[in-house]
């Protein structure tokens, strides 16, 4: 539980525009303060407040521009707001340093999918599948993208693989509008039943 004096501090903190001028960091407490701000951002993200989350992730990034966790979570929050190009920018900073960062690759792929940049999304999914061919989530999302590209055979094969790896994807697929072109296909119906 946050002590009362800190709660007042946090309420007042929301108007701060420059973290560096507000907090005089010493080398001993900078990491603690950044982690504290990062955790506040996470808390906002988990409660469905992406704008507030971005505010706190930006405060961390003002001090430590390559704080990969803050960048990844800022990207996720931007995605929740439909700001996919900005989310991709966050993921790209991380992927430049860690090209096989699975979470950033899948989230970048999803952002590209939502922007209808399907071939680029597939590239992200393929990078993950080359490292982890039995990843049900990636197989599912690649199936969605392939379906929207009118590649029904490949989409059905990927969906079948995802469902075999995790049966929850059958239920998800039954309600996913990305598969609307397959709703009447007997093979699709058999997979989701």
Report the radius of gyration as a whole number of Å.
20 Å
Percentage of residues in strands: under 5%
Structural class: mainly alpha
The helical percent reads over 70%
CATH topology of the domain at 1-81: Serine Threonine Protein Phosphatase 5, Tetratricopeptide repeat
Number of strand segments: 0
Give the overall shape: elongated
Q: Care to describe what's here?
A:
With 193 residues, the protein is mainly alpha-helical. It has a domain at 1-81: Tetratricopeptide repeat domain (Serine Threonine Protein Phosphatase 5, Tetratricopeptide repeat, Alpha Horseshoe). The chain has helices at 4-13, 19-22, 30-46, 50-63, 68-80, 84-97, 102-114, 118-131, 136-148, 152-165, 168-174, 186-192. The chain is elongated and about 60 Å long.
SSE layout and pairing:
Layout lengths: L3 H10 L5 H4 L7 H17 L3 H14 L4 H13 L3 H14 L4 H13 L3 H14 L4 H13 L3 H14 L2 H7 L11 H7 L1
Helix pairs in contact: 3-4, 3-5, 4-5, 5-6, 5-7, 6-7, 7-8, 8-9, 9-10, 10-12
In short:
Helix 5 (68-80) packs antiparallel against helix 6 (84-97) and helix 9 (136-148) runs antiparallel to helix 10 (152-165).
Task: Considering the chains and any ligands shown, give keywords for the structure.
193 residues, disordered N terminus
């Amino acid at each position: 539980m946050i002590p009362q004096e800190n709660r007042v501090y946090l309420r007042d903190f929301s108007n701060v525009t420059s973290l560096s001028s507000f907090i005089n960091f010493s080398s001993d407490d900078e990491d603690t303060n950044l982690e504290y701000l990062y955790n506040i951002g996470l808390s906002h993200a988990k409660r469905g407040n992406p704008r507030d989350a971005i505010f706190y992730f930006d405060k961390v990034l003002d001090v430590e521009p390559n704080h990969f966790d803050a960048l990844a979570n800022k990207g996720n929050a931007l995605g929740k707001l439909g700001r996919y190009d900005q989310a991709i920018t966050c993921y790209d900073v991380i992927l430049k340093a860690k090209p096989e960062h699975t979470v950033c690759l899948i989230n970048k792929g999803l952002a590209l999918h939502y922007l209808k940049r399907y071939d680029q999304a597939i590239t992200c999914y393929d990078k993950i599948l080359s490292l982890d061919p039995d990843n049900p989530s990636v197989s599912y999302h690649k199936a969605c993208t392939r379906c929207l590209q009118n590649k029904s055979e490949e989409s059905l094969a990927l969906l079948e693989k995802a469902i075999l790896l995790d049966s929850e994807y059958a239920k998800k697929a039954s309600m996913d509008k990305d598969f609307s072109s397959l709703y009447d296909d007997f093979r699709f119906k058999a997979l989701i039943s």
